[in-house]
Amino acid sequence: MVTVFQVILWSILANIPIGIIAHRRKSLRAPDGIIVAGILGFILFLAHWFYWVVVILFFSSSSLLTKYKHSSRMKQEAMQFAEKGGNRDMFQVLANSGVLLVISLYFLLDKGSWAAPLIHPLSIAGITSIAVVTADTWSTELGVLSSSSPRFILNLKRKVPRGTSGGISTRGLISTAIGSLLIASAFGFVLYSKTNNGLLALIFLLVLSGGVLGSLIDSILGASIQAQFECPSCNKVTEKRFHAKCGGVKTNHIRGFKIINNDTVNFVSALIPAVIVYFVSNSVLL
After folding, report:
1. Residues near 111 by Cβ (< 8 Å), separated by ≥ 6?
2. Structure pTM?
């Protein structure tokens, strides 16, 4: 029988090397990103080892894609618009994994360590939230490498520069589906021997479709309500409040809500599909 002390020890041993590697690869900002990610990983592992695994899948694949062709002209062009880069701070960590973190805390308080049930509406919703952020990150990192300019999601006839919030492309949409498929497949693999094929297929489709839906919601929210700014020096539209390329000049707010940044959009776009999937799976399972 596995004791709570063994689980705590395993959690510590599992998270320390991940933190070291992430810091060396500049995937987490020190100290806030590393500290919050460490606490997050510790809690997820205590709730259920698969919660931890699925977040590591998201984080490792996303970090690799962030570095992929990082110095290319297309990615450098896109980075002029993005509010933050691949060196994730504490707010990015919480925005991406916050939904699953809350679910983990609930199960820890209600059932104890390593007792979170995977075939449960809350677990399915939590895994869906990770499918969303994975799909969205894959779409962003690979979509900007498209040979053609992206289209604005609120007006598909309009072309926009790479990195623009709400910009979509065929390559990006395909990457969205693959990213979501990665998480849905991992979940399906773990559940394969635990349930019947019909329920397994339903859970797989819920996570897969929820991930794709969330990525599209992210684009819509980014195009409509996320704060956008304009650099007074070069007149470029950006998510940045200070434009580093122009010497850190303060940018002017031109549209969207000032309080809504990329982290807010990421969290909300992960939460909405998670809530939908929760109610759908709840009607089936309970």
Report:
1. 117
2. 0.91
